[in-house]
Specification:
Length: about 160
């Protein structure tokens, strides 16, 4: 605690003269310490503000880079999504009932052609009878299995 040894006149002057009062306050140790701390804080604040201003262009640059990266990644993701949607559509078309029926019909036709070729080989004596019977039986069984599946699928999907 500060001891003040002022006369009554000096005290009256302090009460009536704002400048004298202010000068007196500046001489008090606690006020000096507070003013010094305030000045140091002000300087540190100014220094931090300058450093932040110096960093602002870099922050703007990083923000722009981030926007570019985000835009690029979004475009890549949208492109990938479109590709996957396209693949999905192709798979749906490939496995659609109409497509499956068509492929089953084509497999039947192929087996039919193989049977005719095998029959022609028998007639031209390019294959012996036992080999012909074994292969022809396998081909005709395959053909009839496919024909039954085709007929059942056609009936169930269009009936």
């Amino acid at each position: 605690m500060v001891k003040i040894n002022f006369s009554v006149d000096e005290l009256r002057r302090l009460l009536s003269d704002k400048d004298a009062y202010h000068q007196f306050l500046l001489t008090v140790d606690q006020v000096k310490i507070q003013n010094k701390i305030r000045d140091e804080l002000r300087m540190e604040t100014l220094q931090l503000a300058r450093e932040n201003l110096d960093k602002e262009p870099r922050a703007i640059e990083l923000k722009n880079q981030s926007r570019i990266i985000r835009t690029t990644e979004l475009a890549a993701a949208q492109e990938k999504l479109q590709e996957l949607e396209k693949q999905k559509e192709e798979l749906l078309k490939f496995y659609s009932p109409g497509s499956l029926l068509q492929r089953l019909k084509e497999a039947m036709d192929k087996t039919e052609v193989e049977s005719e070729i095998l029959h022609a080989q028998l007639l031209n004596k390019e294959i012996d009878t036992s080999a012909f019977v074994q292969k022809y039986k396998r081909l005709r069984t395959t053909y009839h299995q496919r024909a039954l599946v085709h007929l059942a699928a056609k009936t169930s999907s269009f009936g």
